[in-house]
Amino acid sequence: MRGTVRGRVTVAVLLSAVLGAGLTVALSRPGGAVGSEETYPVPAGGSYTFAGHGYGHGHGMSQYGAMNRAKAGQTAAQILNFYYPGTAVGTVDPAGDLRVRLTLPGAEPLVVAAAPGLSVRDSATGSDTALGGTGQYRVVDGSSTVSLQVSQGGGIWTPVTLTGGATSTTGTLTFSGPPLLHLVHADGTARDYAGMLSGGPSGGSGLRVVNTVAIDEYVAGVVPAEVYSTWPAATLQAQAVAARTYAARARADRPTNWYHICDTAACQVYGGRYRYTADGTRIDLQPAAVRTAVAATAGQIRTWQDAPIFAQFSASNGGWTVAVSGFPYLVAAADPYDLPGNPYASWTAAVPVTTLAACLLPGATLDRLVVTGRDGHGDWGGRITGVRVEGNIGGTAVSVTTDGDGLRRCAGLRSTYFTVTSKFLMTSEPAGVRDSYGNIDLFATGPAKDVLHRRYVVNHGWQPWRSLGGGVLGSPGALRLPDGSVRVYVRGTKDSLYQGTLDAAGGWHGWVLRVAGNITSRPYPVRQSDGSTLVFYLSGSTLSYAVFTASGGGAGVFSLGGVLAPGAAPAAAVTGSGQVTALVVAANGSIASRSRAAGRWGPWTGLGGGTTADLGAASPSAGVLDVYLRGTGAGALYTRRSVNGRWGGWTNVGGALSTGTFAAALRGRTEVWTVGPSATAYFRDRTAAGFGPWLAVP
């Protein structure tokens, strides 16, 4: 525990260049249910922020869960039955040998202090050499051979002649004799180990250092390195059984290998019997409570089909254990005992975008993280099982696919059970449309110029962003249809009009080119009573609109002329049967309107006001038309209402807008969308009772 992670699997990361642009050709992306992927564009602050649960892989036993279960009165057997369901109790010889690979710092030699009865055996000849009772002995790696040297201090080492007359051997040299062997490190610290210590030729990969020790003596060195010795006895006993089982399986898996198990978190942490500081202070690594727990479970393991199980464990599962394919006793289950008093139950982290790019997209600019899968258990949909990291090299798309553990390692996170909490820099107004149930579909342009979608679900809140693909200029426009579907219109990078459809079930059906060229602003769609759709947009400094029939067919593109402010998108609203009004920003920054009734367009009408940003408009009821704009100066929201063709005055309704507006009405309720401080999306509603407060999109 204490920062350790069990049973890590190395993830191969595939980096492949994916040719293709965005909207310039096809704006296509496979259909599928919205929410199956989560898209997190590069955040405004240059660092991704994360919130997560747990520490480690979550397989098998949670150490904090075991601690809380013991405090609640569960026995070690009950704890193990929960974390390894269906397993049986088995036994191994507690005195049976286990070969533990020791990791020495800095590839240093194996140094053992002299002691009465100390000897060394050469495995090549089988001969023993008795050693003196003073000084230190070290085994030095010669790649294909090892040699033994002795020092009486002063840093002077001299060769030791082994029995038979040789000073080096192709075999392994093994120290034994005293009850504890004192291994000395170059920095003056030391450790005592029971059993035997050996050093063998490396073949060029570093001295092979092994502690051969009785398995229960080994377990006593693992338990206090993995859990606190002050925890309840049942926790220590459960940890002892899990550690013993893990070691027994490792031994069974590699019976003839030069070692069975390692001493680090890659296997399970093993510290030996005593540790000594550089000043000689001895620290007992196996307190009485630990040795009592090991003795109480002497030789006990857990088995499946008469073989030791893969008894994985981790510090904290965050409230859910994780299923592992091929191991029927490692299952997913809610674990409420993991959470109380657990410092790893919830955590946060911040990771620079440059760190992730250097790790996962070397040489590329990172554009977004895409979560492609979760295990379905717990908050946010559970642990991350699939990730795609997207970016570009000189404008050419590149991507990486990995699993949650690959991202976890790169970002230095505690587990794969997390979500992204950082916000991206929103530079143009989003388009939000509510349905009759109160759910909202929100569309925005991401930093990589793709269209992003997220949904607000009543009683469940905002869901993650999902990329709908493409490469757009400016903001999207959106239109809710009576069947619950949404049509999204965007200006592509070649100034063409594209339409995408989100069906009522959340399925995305990709992008379709509707008008080629000469689209120079955000499109603004409205639906007429006959089911046809009009999409208004600028063509340079004039107003145009495209007509699409109720069945979706094109019915022509028309110009309404005007001398308009380039780049400030128009808005429109249908106020009654056959009645539609378009609103624009004139070249001098004032607002003008033009209305159609009985199939004929009337003249331009000046409305005053002033803005340089995109307009919003909506009709909350028959005969009523509202226009919304970002005012000049402080950027407050201004609105003006027309009732049956008679305009009221402009009203400042507050706020600090940094972009234009988009508005949509449903059953007497209008929602106005914009971007406010800190590049955050905001909206507020308007009903017969007036305006509600500004609400930020988290």
Rg over alpha carbons: 35 Å
Class per helix and strand makeup:
mainly beta
The low-confidence runs, each spanning 5 or more residues with pLDDT under 50, are 1-35
Specify the helix fraction band: 10-25%
Mean pLDDT, nearest integer?
A: 92
Per DSSP E runs of 2 or more residues, the count of β-strands stands at 58
Q: Biggest sheet: strands side by side, in what order?
A: 10-9-15-18-19-7-20
Put simply, the count of helices is 7
Total count of domains: 4
Measured distance between first and last alpha carbons: 34 Å
Question: Which architecture of the largest domain per CATH?
Answer: 6 Propeller
Shape: elongated
Biggest beta sheet attributes: 7 strands, mixed
The named CATH superfamily of the largest domain: Fucose-specific lectin
Q: Kindly estimate the percentage of residues that lie in beta strands according to DSSP.
A: 35-45%
Structure, explained:
There is one protein chain. This protein is mainly β and 698 residues long. It has four domains: 14-56 and 345-420, no CATH class; 61-96 and 215-338, no CATH class; 105-206, no CATH class; 520-693, Fucose-specific lectin (Neuraminidase, 6 Propeller), CATH 2.120.10. It is 11% helix and 40% strand. The strands form 13 sheets. The chain has a seven-stranded mixed β-sheet. It has a five-stranded antiparallel β-sheet with strand order 1-29-28-27-3. Strands 2-39-38-37-36 form a five-stranded antiparallel β-sheet, with no helix packed on it. α1 runs antiparallel to α4 and α3 packs across α5 (288-296). Residues 1-35 have low confidence and may be disordered.
